[in-house]
Known about the structure:
There is one protein chain. The chain has six helices and two strands, in the order αααββααα. The chain is mainly alpha-helical. A two-stranded antiparallel sheet has the order 1-2. Helix 1 packs across helix 3 (37-49). The two termini are 21 Å apart.
Amino acid sequence: MISQTVRYAFRILGRLAGSRDGLVRGEELADATGIPANYLSKILNQLRKAGFVESQKGWGGGFRLREEALQRPIRDVLVVFDGTESLERRDCAFGLPQCDADNPCPLHEDWEGVRTAVRSMLDRTTVQDLAGTT
């Protein structure tokens, strides 16, 4: 349901939300989150383009969370990386292509409840709630 890239983005935002004193260097973020540096760089670039973080280049540079990003729901992060269609998917728990309301698998109703709960969590949890998750 949530891709590895989105999980990494949550870690990055959690680290930045927990250290709002100033800029955090990319190397420090990589060490703190366990995300490979080149992958981290790509994720940070997308987060910057989406308005979650700002960056400063050069000596003493780094990344910081934008103040207005703190109240954004983490659903917005998922949409940046996986698109809105990731929230609309109705994948079967067993991966059966014919599973739907008219032809449900044994887990269909329970799995729908799980998907609904995850979507609700993504909407009510903010970036600020991620602070200290690294």
